[in-house]
Design brief:
17 helices; single chain; five-stranded antiparallel β-sheet
Amino acid sequence: MISQNALVLYKTRPAVVTGTEGEKILISFKGEKSGIKVREKDVELLHAGPFNPGDWEEQAAGDVRSAWELLAESGETVILQELAGLVFNEFTPQSALASWKLVEENLFFTGDIKHIKARSKTELETEEKRRADKQTEINERSDFLQRMRTIISANNSSKSTVTLTEQDRRYLQDTEALARGQSDKSRTLKEMGISETPVDAHRFLLAAGAWTVWDNPYPARFGLTLSPVKTIAEPPPEENRVDTDRIDLTHLPAFAIDNAYSDDPDDAISLEGPDSQGRLTLWVHTADPAACVIAGSPADTEAQNRGSTLYLPEQICRMLAPQITEKFILKPGPHYNGVTPDNGITPDNGVTPALSFKLLLNPDSSIAETQIFLSRIKVTCLNYEEADKLADSTGADNSGAGDIDSGAGNTGGHGIIIKKLFELAEKNLERRLETGAVNIELPEVHIRVIKGTDNGNNSIEIDKNMRRRSADMVRECMILAGEGAALWAVKNRVPFPFICQEAGELPDNPLPGPAGAYQIRRSMRPRSLSSKPGVHWGLGLDAYTQVTSPLRRYTDLLAHQQIRAFLKGGPLLSEDEILLRAARAEAGAAAAAKAERASNTHWKMVYLSDKTGSSWEGIILENRGNRSVVLIPDLGLETPASLRNGEPNEKITLTCAGVKIPEAQALFTV
């Protein structure tokens, strides 16, 4: 039986026996006043004792390395008592405890009380190096944390003289991952006593000088990649020849009208008529990347995962490889058009391949019939301002003003067509409003980040988007194309990605102006994708889809793939397949939309960061107690402001009092 004051091991922990209680013994551990009761068979005897409380602190002196060399050379296995004799030349409670610590340390010796063996020379050297490296790492990390405190303190007082080392940046990788939403933990922040959140990580990186305001964490935070698409699709073999399926529409003036900063137009408009019944024919031509991006192909899968093109103020990350975009954008240049049998590229002859939607319109602009063709067109590219000026330059007394075809080959004829398109768009908007559509008009801006060779040369441009009649016209034509494509799919029983929207709860007496538009926008419900046609409340349509941006939106490309399969008599994707692909793409597109909004706000904050004290005109959108939501039109920014009084739509002057970049907040005073 183990006697009182004996030294024992309980689950590898040294303990001293302090007494007995029935069939059990009482033991206590170093530094613990109260003990525990255990069975005698559950402990191992280190030394019979007596072991005194002061023995915990006494250190036995011995020659560890000589003992190791002896055992390593002989290869013998010893018990704890023998190891104590070799190292300390005696077997006492203190030497027994010290010998066990050597075994537990697992550096020179390994095993248990009854079987102790020396490590080989190679094992010992490897382990010593590992432990030395670990200790160096501990020391370096301690120095890093102290340096971070010094840097942050200096930066906060604008007296920083310490710069980050490469080692520092390595230690900050976990914090960067947290700031980008790629991890939910940061050892560095935890050791610094800082909350482990993306906002706190962002703030810390700025304070430490690891990041500047020119680092945008939001795309990564929403799980998006900024790397370019690598999968390049080639035209399918059956179209790598003279394509007799493409009808020739090069006689029709086709206008690709977009923002001045857009360089990838993927839709264009033509107009014919009126016919004997007074009906116009609207042609909406779209890019035709489905000619080479086949459903289920690697290029299709990558586009599906991205969901849409990501438009950031600092860069554009396209849904499709640049080689595909360059082949199919709707502007003059080398394109695939089914003529050249080797690589599908022809010299610049002004002819562009397209998928064209022919919409026969009733006098009220409702759709009488929709036809879809593979086509060849000749495109005239205009920005919104140019299109407006072209239409305005055509006088009302122009001899050809009532005949679209009379001047189709000259600038005056182009102006006539665009004016007719304006009239058509206005009729279509009236038709939709009569069926319950809502029209939201709030100021928008275009943000451009210009990166120099270093952060000192960076700049931000924010331009307010002017209201352009041609922009409204293009929007209505694209809506007509989406409505016509949906009706076509229903008529021909083609499984399609339809877009629906349930009715929102509009206020009983909506306000006028921007405040009213804000009310309506807040009442809107999110759209949904369906394999069945349904009402789109916001647009006032019974059936709708999107087909006019196949280079930018995957669901548009998916619709094109179905259209092409039908036109060529090929197999169609089922409704379930359509929903699965569309749902996957919508997840990517939703993430891209959130990243774009967050990035735009980030760059607005950076733009304001050196404009403390600047004044801005604001419009009150909504009052919430003593807080209001105010719109700054020149920034396209909605911000809270403390107001004691003020009415919706009232104009006020705001002064920028400061900016919090990590929180994406600007502080304004009235």
